[in-house]
Automatic annotation (TrEMBL):
The keyword Iron applies. It comes from Oikopleura dioica (Tunicate). Keywords: Dioxygenase, Iron, Metal-binding, Nucleus, Oxidoreductase. GO terms for molecular function: dioxygenase activity; metal ion binding. Its main location: nucleus. Residues 30-146 form the Fe2OG dioxygenase domain. It is found in: Nucleus. InterPro entries: AlkB-like (IPR027450), ALKBH6 (IPR032862), Oxoglu/Fe-dep_dioxygenase_dom (IPR005123). Belongs to the alkB family. This is Fe2OG dioxygenase domain-containing protein. It comes from the Eukaryota.
Amino acid sequence: MLRIPFPEYLKEINSKVKEFLEKKEFKVGEMNHVLINEYKPGQGIMAHTDGPAYSPVVATISTGGGQLLNIRTKENKEIIHSVYLEPGALSVLHGALYSELHEIEENLSDDISRASNFHSLSSPLENGNFLISRQTRISFTFRNVRSTRFLPKALLKTLNFDSVS
Ligand SMILES: O=C(O)CCC(=O)C(=O)O
Ligand SMILES: [Fe+2]
């Protein structure tokens, strides 16, 4: 992977993620890769694992709307855990959560009563029921890529990057 510096706003989010992971004593290198996903209402991501490249930890910040993330077993695809990723939340996949499958269903709303973090959510209930309509969610998933290379300084300058981080 070729390295280009994160823009300032990502550096700021990344340092907060780093601070949290260090406090929780996750054994992970520098989060030097970020994937930004946008989900419109009705969109999701099929059940998958992030594979060995980013093991053992990925950390995701949610912004915009919320979405329910399911963890399914690889063995029989049964849902063993659901967590509502609300705006502002940091979610961390590690251990069994990393190695099993995760998915976001293609729904227009989420039933947050299914969420294991239901009692600690700050999202208000709509009309007193547990279905929360989706709004566009943008997620920032931070990962550690072990093998990276810097671009030559001259090229970074041409591309308008002043420093490498
Ligand atoms: O957007 C999310 O919260 C999950 C994204 C994800 O699982 C992925 O990009 O591999
Ligand atoms: Fe993923």
